Amino acid sequence: MTSSFVATIGLEIHVQLDTQTKMFCRCRRTVDAPPNSHVCPVCLGMPGGLPVVNQGAVAMGVQLAEALSCTIHRQSVFARKNYFYPDLPKGYQITQHEAPLATDGVLADPETGEVVRVSRVHLEEDAGKSIHPQSGEHSLVDFNRCGAPLAEIVTEPEFHSPGAAVAWLKELWTLVDFLGICRGSMADGVFRCDANVSMAKVGCGELGVRTELKNMNSFQAILSALEFEIDRQTEVLRTGGRVLLETRLWDEGTGQTLVMRGKEEARDYRYFDEPDLPVLILEPMWLQRVVESTRETPGEVRRAFAHRFGLTREDVGRFTTSRKWADYAFEALERAQDIPAVCNWLNRDVANAIHQSGGDPSALSVAPDDISKLANLVESGTLSLPMARNVFRTMWSRVLPLAQCLEDAGHQESDESTLRTVVGELIDEFPDEARRYVAGKESLLRWFVGQAMRRTQGRGNPQIISQLFEKLLNRKEHP
Fold it and tell me: In terms of domains, do 115 and 225 share one?
């Protein structure tokens, strides 16, 4: 049944910027240190601690805004956002409110091409992390994250399905990875998303009362939370109820959104300009250097793969899931004599090795150049594909150089007289299979070739072997 209500979703994404230190102090930014081991009077909000803006964080915010095609403002203002929570030791958060770093950006979904407008990009500091043990007897607070630099990206309310919102979020995640401004996992909290959801009658022209969803630390959690909340609000409206303006938490265990508190409005936070920080002014020459240093976006890299190598859309998508994987694949393909062959190596053997090694292509012991060399050796007939794959596995598992592995593997056997002997022996050993092939069961040719490859320990040239089998079997000859 078609629903008489339409969903509208807006996203607020917090990206923890990959700086060495925090946003307003010299404490090291970390996600895995012992609790409360990287704190100081500034990030703990003690009397006399004065904030100083992290220039590296500002540069990363500018690069993000540039990649999102935002209008970057030469002047922006930090403000105090006042609220009380155990993981906010100052009782306020330093953020940007009325005068953000950048506004009016866009980012397209790579699959559908639909453009989503970005309302603003602003800089702020992170709060600490509350930890609630299962016993429920007490809660703990880790202030290591407190003061970490964040860029917040706020979209316009332009999504109308959970799937579209999550697909766009994945593209944003890929973007910040390609820019090199955010590293880590969503489980570490370096990329977090809050979602505003409202339902309204189809064609009414107005947005419904919204709820804000928090506590979503994976793309699957975001998808599930949005789907549940849309169903919940639809049922409330369908039965004549009223959706309340509130903040709700996603409970992974129950698969439900639960009420956290009433939704705050801007006036509840009592914003005012941060008195300890001057107006942030971006000097033109500095701004130009930062903009020019912005790395290629995923869209630009995808176009480079397609133009340079003529790859299919599927291969382009696979090779641009992360910056490190794109760099690895591009370098391997640049040296390829047979691009489809190198693509097969990357999609199969290399991808499997990277997965088993922890997912980091840059940590793989096999260099991209070695992949193209192996593919070229197979193409030239120097190695059979099974031999080349054995060489790759040895290089990867034993961390050995290609030259040594090739020397140990030897060369492909392509001498026709030697291979003719092997082929003849197999035809003599399997006369029934030979007769069935001659009678029309052509699939047995592959079986015979496989037997010959095993007999030669993978060293036989499979093309020559196949040709010899075809000739001898069709002539019913034996050497």
Answer: yes
Tally the domains of the chain.
3
In DSSP terms, 8 is beta-bridged to 198
Continuous segment of H or E residues that includes residue 467? helix 462-475
Domain boundary among 247, 264, 289: 289
CATH number of 451's domain: 1.10.10.410
Domain match, 310 and 203 both: no
Read off the pTM. 0.84
Tokens matching residue 451:
């037997």
Q: pLDDT in tens for each of the 479 residues of the chain?
A: 447 899 999 999 999 999 999 999 999 999 889 999 999 999 999 999 999 999 999 999 999 999 999 999 999 999 999 988 889 999 999 999 999 999 999 999 877 888 999 999 999 999 999 887 877 788 899 999 999 999 999 999 999 999 999 999 999 999 999 999 998 888 888 999 999 999 998 888 788 899 999 988 899 999 999 999 999 999 999 999 999 999 999 998 899 999 888 776 767 889 999 999 999 999 999 999 999 999 999 999 999 999 999 999 999 999 999 999 999 999 999 989 899 999 999 999 999 999 888 888 888 889 999 999 999 888 877 777 888 888 899 889 888 888 888 877 666 556 677 678 878 888 888 888 888 888 888 878 778 877 877 777 666 777 777 788 888 877 654 44
Whether residue 203 is found in the same domain as residue 84? yes
Which residues does 399 contact at the CB level (< 8 Å), separation at least 6?
365
- Are 107 and 168 in contact, with CB atoms under 8 Å apart? yes
Name residue, tokens 């607020």.
Answer: 12
Domain of residue 303 covers 296-409
On the 0-12 / 13-18 / 19+ scale of CB atoms within 10 A, 431 is exposed
Query: Which of 289, 321, 354 is the last residue before a domain boundary?
Result: 289
Mark whether 20 and 47 lie in a shared domain.
yes
Same domain, 251 and 117: yes
The per-residue DSSP string of 151-218 comes to EEEEE-S-B-SHHHHHHHHHHHHHHHHHHTS--S-GGGTSEEEEEEEEEEETT--S---EEEEE---S
Buried b (16+ CB within 10 A) or exposed e, 148-182: bbbbbbbbebbbeebebbbbbbbbbbbbbbbbebb
Q: Chain-centre distance of CA 220, in angstroms?
A: 14
The alpha carbon of 16 is separated from its chain's Cα centroid by a whole number of angstroms, namely: 15
- In this structure, the answer to whether residues 19 and 87 fall within a common structural domain is yes
What is each CA distance from 159 to 20, 105, 341, 410, in whole angstroms? 35, 16, 40, 58
- The Cα angle at residue 461 between residues 419 and 354, in degrees rounded to 5: 145
Q: Are residues 387 and 438 in the same domain?
A: no
With tokens 């979602």, the residue in question is: 195
Same-domain status, 347 and 301: yes
On whether the CB atoms of residues 39 and 143 are closer than 8 A, the answer is yes
